[in-house]
Amino acid sequence: MTHRPRSSARRGDHSHGDVHLHGHGHAHGHDHPGHSHPTGVRGVLHGIFVPHSHDAADSIDDAMEAHSQGIRAVKVSLVLMLVTTVVQAVIVAFSGSVALLADTVHNLSDALTAVPLWIAFVLSRRVATRRYTYGFNRAEDLAGLFIVLMIALSAVVAAVEAIDRMVSPRPMENIGWVIAAGVVGFLGNEAVAVYRIRVGRRIGSAALVADGIHARTDGFTSLAVVAGGIGVLLGFPLADPIVGLLISAMIAVLLVGTVRSVGRRLMDGVEPELVDRAERALGEVIGIDSVDRVRMRWIGHRLHGDALVRTSATTLVDADRLASTAEETVRQRLPNLDEIAVRVVAVGS
């Protein structure tokens, strides 16, 4: 008896499992991704830079809608950063501060990091081909790697600038304008960070979350400028470079977690909580005697997986019904799941 696969509601994809009795299914997630929180110093910084959010509870199970939200987030944040840059440029024109000009150029370059992510989201909407059978969602992970490099570069540049100012102290000019530009930079970057991280978690995009963290680190760098300016006004000229070094150290510590997150995606890693959730869902299905294997991986912000389960059912009809039930159960538990192939085999085989 041959089982005809049902079409995916997203891209017309099909999932075919090799079976003894039956095997195959599609699942679409509705729950939010499992996640863990770092502890120690990195945990504290993670709480500051990437506060916990329950937005993922409303995770999007439609692939095209997720792509659209990702592109919208990139567009909106790009516009916000450009507006921030323009405002800072106006302040530079009034103040004539070379330091502010450098910071403005820095923010403009950071805004443009959204471009490769935008390209990645556009590519992810393309239909899979015979060469790229899983589609083009992996471009998003490559964009995430680029963003990680930009975060690292931001930390290095901030540290070098701070050390240079400690070795060769220079009087800070137009301190009021410097503080004003720092506040503008912080508010603009923070607004972009909140938006990117929220949407990134909702659609399951590690790259978009990383880009949000990038914006937040730049915002705190701008806040360091404000703190340094206030310190200078209070008669402590080394406040600016000292705060700059502290911010660089904070970015470096936070970078470790971001590298792990993006690198894990590139290595087909997945949160163990997601696998546990899938195993529990399958184990609750009446008729499944054991769950031998569950494999999952992120491709961009979409999940793909397969499972091997055993049953005492003796007919193809029973196995087919069992696989369909398993599919419906899993789809209630897993987020952003494009497809999962369930292979059902008889106990003892």
Automatic annotation (TrEMBL):
Keywords: Membrane, Transmembrane, Transmembrane helix, Transport
Residues passing through the membrane, by range: 78-102, 108-124, 145-163, 175-197, 218-236, 242-259
Family annotation (InterPro entries): Cation_efflux, Cation_efflux_CTD, Cation_efflux_CTD_sf, Cation_efflux_TM, Cation_efflux_TMD_sf, CDF_Transporter
Gene3D superfamilies, per the entry: Cation efflux protein transmembrane domain (1.20.1510.10), Cation efflux protein, cytoplasmic domain (3.30.70.1350)
Biased composition (Basic and acidic residues): 10-21
Domain Cation efflux protein transmembrane: start-end pairs: 74-267
Region (Disordered): 1-38
Membrane-protein topology: Multi-pass membrane protein
Pfam families referenced in this protein's UniProt entry, alphabetically: Cation_efflux, ZT_dimer
Similarity remark: Belongs to the cation diffusion facilitator (CDF) transporter (TC 2.A.4) family.
Listed name of the protein: Cation transporter
